[in-house]
Amino acid sequence: MKFTVLSLFPEILEAYFTSSIMAKAVEKGVVSYANINIRDFAADRHRTCDDAPYGGGAGMVLKPEPLAAALDSVGAGCLRTVCPTPSGRLFTQAYARELSAEREVVLICGRYEGIDQRVLDLYVNDEVSVGDYVLSSGEIAAMLVIDAVYRLLDGVITKESLEEESFCGGLLEYPQYTRPEVFRGLRVPDILLSGHHANIRQWRREQSILKTKKNRPELLGAADKI
Length: 226
Ligand code: ADE
Description:
This protein folds into 2 domains: 2-150, SPOUT methyltransferase, trefoil knot domain (Alpha/beta knot, 3-Layer(aba) Sandwich); 164-223, Orthogonal Bundle (Trp Operon Repressor, Chain A), CATH 1.10.1270.20. It contains 9 helices and 9 strands. It has helices spanning 10-17, 20-28, 64-73, 93-99, 117-123, 138-150, 159-164, 197-215, 220-224, and strands at residues 2-7, 32-37, 50-51, 61-62, 80-90, 104-108, 126-129, 182-183, 186-187. It has a 5-stranded parallel beta sheet with strand order 2-1-6-5-7, with helices on both faces. It has a two-stranded antiparallel sheet with strand order 3-4. Strand 5 (80-90), helix 4 and strand 6 (104-108) form a beta-alpha-beta unit. Helix 3 (64-73) packs parallel to helix 5 and helix 4 (93-99) packs across helix 6 (138-150). The radius of gyration is 22 Å and the shape is elongated. The two termini are 29 Å apart. Residues 84-86, 129-131, 133-135, 138, 141 line the site of adenine (ADE).
């Protein structure tokens, strides 16, 4: 799968694509990427990419011309194009799964007060918010979207890990323990040392329900139906 990211700070994304598990996925050929600098498409001497909003108001808006030229250069017109923005629909695991079926996704990293609406109208399929808070940069939101998507691709992490994690089955993940058996006086629950797989499965399910009840009670109704 290819991620094409348009940004005014492509170096932020470059560090992400060349580190850790993502770097391995790129090396294996599971992921490819293109980091495009929107400023390279600005036509004036100062390479201006922002301007004051029509109608007044605080802050600056990403100008349409450089961004549209950058989008044309990557053929965004025929690709799934996503714009992370706090005013988008909420990003979810289900949407991450949907994006992971695409061959290529284009992401636009907004800055300032937002991007000119006409670029959204002409190019963007989905505006997505990564949560009900405002980040100072679209790059962080784009990385979050990419991260949730690429780890679902075959060959990135094991199938078992994907099957057991939070949101799979509509519940949050049960607590995990590793060696030592006692840490600062706290013991690993006996059941995990018992070797009794059916009981362990049952305990983990109960723990998942307890955790979901405590941290995300609104998920429980939906989980019952899965
Ligand atoms: N850019 C700034 N805040 C954001 C958010 N919550 N979601 C997506 N993009 C953003």
